[in-house]
Write a structure and sequence with these properties.
Length: 108
């Protein structure tokens, strides 16, 4: 017996859009049993959080563009601050190690 009904393609699978009345109960039972498995609950949770994921993707793009814009303005200043901080750190470390060596030689 051939049944023809509308479907849509999702990941190379035919998903029924409109099914005959005698198939509706079986389809409901199939969806209910699938939703009670761990995989089904995973996909249901993904569906429920899809708005938050789309929002996160959009905000990530906004933050990325904002970061690029701010870096184009402040990159040179940040680089010079890093150079100055490294030089200060090297100077302090040199002084600390020299002082430590001097105290070690006095104790001998």
């Amino acid at each position: 017996m051939d049944h023809v009904y509308k479907t849509k393609s999702v990941a190379d699978f035919c998903i029924p859009v409109q099914v005959p009345d005698d198939f509706k109960e079986g389809l409901k039972a199939l969806l209910k049993s699938f939703s009670q498995t761990s995989v089904g609950s995973y996909f249901h949770d993904m569906y429920l959080s899809s708005r938050a994921m789309y929002g996160s993707l959009a905000m990530g793009a906004v933050y990325c563009l904002l970061y690029i814009y701010l870096m184009s303005i402040f990159a040179e200043y940040l680089a010079w601050v890093c150079v100055v901080l490294v030089q200060i750190g090297l100077g302090v470390t040199t002084f600390a190690l020299y002082s430590y060596r001097k105290t070690q030689n006095e104790n001998l």
